[in-house]
Amino acid sequence: MNRTQAQRWGLLLLSVALLSVADNAKAAEKSNAPVEVTSPGEKLRMTLTIADRAGSTGCPVYRVLCGKRVVIAPSGLGLELADGTLLTEGFQRLAVIERGQNDSTWKTVCGERSVVRDRYRSAIVEMIPRDKSHDTLRLEIRVYDEAVAFRYLLPAVPGKDMTEIAAEKTRFQFTADHDAWAVYSAQGVYRQVKLSQIKGGCERPLTIRVSEVCRPGVDDNLYVAVAEAALVDYARMKLAPSGDAPLELVSNLHGPVALKRPLRTPWRVIMVAGSPGELLENNDVLRNLNDPCAIDDTSWIRPGKVIREVSLSTAGGKRCVDFAVKYGLQFIEYDAGWYGPEGDAASDATTVTLDPKRSKGPLDLPEVIRYARQHGIGVIVYVNRRAAERQLGEILPLYRRWGIAGVKYGFVNVGSQEWTSWLHEAIRAAARNRLMIDVHDEYRPTGWERTYPNFMTSEGIAGDETAPSNQQTLTILFTRMLAGPGDNTVCYFDGRVDRNASHAYQLAKPVCIFSPWQFLFWYDRPEQMHDEPELEFYKHLPTVWDETKVLHARIGQYAVIARRHGHEWFVGCMNAGQPRTLDVPLDFLPAGRRFDAHIYRDDPTVDTRTKVRVTRQPVEAGSVLQAAMTAQGGMAVRLVPK
Fold this sequence. Notes:
- By secondary structure, this protein is of the alpha+beta class.
- Among the domains are: 1-27; 35-288, Beta-galactosidase, Chain A, domain 5 (Distorted Sandwich), CATH 2.70.98.
- The chain is built from eleven helices and 36 strands.
- Helix 4 (314-327) runs parallel beside helix 5.
- The longest helix has 28 residues, at 3-30.
- The radius of gyration is 27 Å and the shape is globular.
- Residues 1-30 and 213-218 have low confidence and may be disordered.
């Protein structure tokens, strides 16, 4: 073929290609076919279409399937703008702007797994309005084998710099009156209720048991969790009955949102699993939906175990440092009162000024910090929101100069866009000053600790300081803990342990409830603690993990969780309601390698205050341990390779 012939063939092929593109565009213009996105393993499927419903025309509608089972029945989507525009109807067709897929991994700084896989198929779909004056709306979709996630996008429009969203209308229509575990404040009491009984203001994640036909001895249930991810500069979502259809929930924003275009909302997430344990194993999907780490050098970020210093004195601080060194802790924490009454707006967090109602002191905080650093222990300080909101720009660089390791923000404002944005900027500002952060009270995480891993942990949990029943804690484990790290303020020697649980159960708790900072001794003073032999478990216990496996799980009843750090495994067994014995197969151990099992059980015949018996035995991958637990008991195990 000569050059002229090649040029003619090239022009012919180009013409054919252009005609094909034009034909495809025309077909898409005329088509109103549903858009479908399927997970990489073909487990989950989300379909999106335009339909007429509830007296409205041109409504975007989605549904979610797990295999052939309908998880979310056809449900409406959209936003309501402050100017009265309803982006819930008036659309004529869908246009797929982009399709993609991802299969990558990333390394955590302080995680439940050292490496996280991020595997999904995706699409960005534009909803084209009938009326050209009507705003367009886009939906970004990601479908994992473990979850379906989507968020709204509003593209840039000439003449529209800012857009105010008055309400969100994401609906979740279920197929039956399933059981759900509902709570209405982050530290409230969970109740198992029917979907039809859920009231407005229901917290997320909301865990739901999708019941269908159950054969004897076989659990055919699916478990679903409705959650939120990447909430950074937007109003918090809760859930409420829609009022338009039975068994339908709707997203309920805390308040209006104003953002510059182009804008994107947080992700709405529907996790799907065959068991509560599988939901917990898959909770990294929320972190996958957040941006990658924004901190270049993370070497200063340090997980560890903490004792709270309750006397607010120099001597008390040094005793806590000595206790931390002896028992393998990494931090001590000075809580409310060290700079004055926390509820007084005049209290100055740039000074050490004791609250006289809490302590007579004396407190030389610089001396305690010096002594702690000399022994390799970090000091964390509490700052109430009143001081933090007023003095943030002063205190963070000051605390870095003092040598403080981290700050616990207390009683933070939550919910609105304003306070959500403020809090996340306060975490960014802490990172700029190399300070780690613990956020307390009603805030619940949405995976942003991936982006700013100096955000070590947060409360939003009815921890031990609230004296929860074992049933509550074992409900929290499969609801709140889907969201991210939980500062459970563990109490070990405090009297409430004897009232509510057992000490072997308490040993297991920081294995099961993940937090890179574990406050193991919340009310305990070093001088009041006996040298109990089982404290060796806490001494060796890590707070971050390379691998996590849930061996047994039933919401509100029991959990057995195994976690690996390096070559060692730790197993936590927690129980509620009635005595039970569970097999703990050790098939997760590497084949052909022997381990020593250090086992910590409740035993009323042991002659110690805590009644924990410590035994040791050789085990291997084929071994099965027996966790025989009382109605409020537990068991902890450390597996060390020979």
